[in-house]
Please model this.
Amino acid sequence: MTISSENPHAHTIRQASNRLRELAKEIDGKWEFVAEKQGIKIYKQDVDQGKTMDMMRGDYVVKSPLSHKDFARIITNAGIRPCWDSNVDKLEEKVIYNEHEELVWAKYKTPWPVSSRDFCVVGLIESEDNESYVTMTSVEDSHIPAVKGCVRGQLDLVGWRIKQEKSELKVTYINHTDMGGSVPTSLMKLIQAQIPMCLIQAADFATKQGFPPYVDQLTNGRFEHDSFDPKKHIYTVKVSSGAELHLMVSRQMYPRGITVKAPNGSSYEIHDNTHTYTVIVRNASSVTISKAK
Model:
């Protein structure tokens, strides 16, 4: 998938994406089987790059009517992530390059007396016929300077491969992180063991709540920004004037229907599908989706 990008870290994130695709292939001799917990097959690689933890991998099958694109948005939506990932303290989108790429500041929880860890991360979503890849890697960027009270960690590579097969999603999660600073060995082992278990948390959220709205297609315009309030279930997207958007909305997240608000001069139509609503908005500069009143 080729994406036109104004992202200054485009080369870095695409290198990371290529690496993710190689690592997420079928298990080979480089991966050492660790255990199977709650249906997740856990593997590790001892990658000698001076990192504080091994590279971890989790493979899990999610039985869900969601598409691979829907599941990818659960992973990447900044409003949703702290709702299911208990390790995330704060997640803030600092720069939106387009609907596929963004610069994010993430702060992770750590037990006392270890200092909190934060990360400056560029992220990329790529979707193909029956699978999506979500890639994240650390960069240096003036939009995210050092934060007092936090130790800056390094995400060498964090990524998800979500492959759709009928009513199942085969999900592979790869994580290679340097926590930075000093961390007790016992705590490091605990963190390493917990890393693949976020697969369960993401799948549980998908099963119980569905997915946040997102832009699936955009023509005749440029993506500027979107936001989602997980408490009120209000989604807003802003684009350049005159755009046409196709938005995907979860019926499970909006069981009583949706309200669509668009500027005067715009038009929209709602297609009610089995598990989703498809909202097509024409000649728009912004769209807001909320619960039906």
